[in-house]
Predict the 3D structure of the following.
Amino acid sequence: MKQGRLERERHTIRVMIEIACSGQHHTKSGLCEECQDLYEYALQRIEKCPYQEAKPTCARCPIHCYKPAMRERIRAVMRYAGPRMLLYHPILTLQHTLDQIGKGKSVAKTIHFVAVQALQTAWLFLVFGGILFASAGRFDWWEAWAFLIIYFLIAMMSAIWMAQTNPELVRERSHPGKNVKQWDNVLVGFNLLLTPALYTVIGLDAGRYGWSEMPAWVRLVGLLGFIPAFGLPLWASKVNAYLSSRVRIQEDRGHTVVAEGPYRHVRHPMYVGMIFYNISVPLVLGSWWGLTVSGLMIVAVIVRTAFEDKTLQRELPGYGEYSQHVRYRLFPGVW
């Protein structure tokens, strides 16, 4: 039987409160008295929702129907349970994503939006894999398979999470506005040329000729580097609705300064994540020579950071004051 929008909302609220109750209140089964009270209150709000089966997700709803105290409690639950939902309830998370980005759209367009994200991730998997195995001259390279699978899973979950939390940002990153800086197009193009070069060098080195001898502990360090490599961009995208894939002042989207989350520590956390990624990939795959290409990519990131920072200070109101409070662009205590 097809599950209605309201019934799915009830189920989503229930499992999110259960996750938070178990993790924060250490409840073995069911809900504690406090969480049961919150759940019953949420059910009352759902029952009285004027939208009924056309109900948007709470994050997109223009009506604030919760009392302030209850609103803070449910927000705390969502902050805790939200990142864990994809692990414990992936299908429900996908359904919630469809509900969230599908408001005002047809179901077909909503599914198309999510499918495009999946296809883009799968395309990168095929391209990176093709370059690695072609340059290695073999398919029995288990490190490359492990890397590709880990990359695909993380990238796929990240894409779904971003579509769920900020679909408008996903659209901006996929199709930036027209006032992109020309120098940024040049730097992005340079980085795109270096990316296949990186995987080609790694394949020739670690996959075919074995020029590098890399200890297992170094590879483990590289694997751990994926945590900030993916985590920092996700954290930045959660708090920064203007995190476009191209450098531009987004006047059409009401561009303002963001000073929350990782932006409290450095001014360009997304690029910090990119640097971690460029270092981690050669280490995980066991190629010292790959670091030479990664070094060029990191130089390009640093140059882009410097140009972007000057643009923001010159053109984005309030950024100059922000840069006085958060002094470092990429590396705390260094630059």
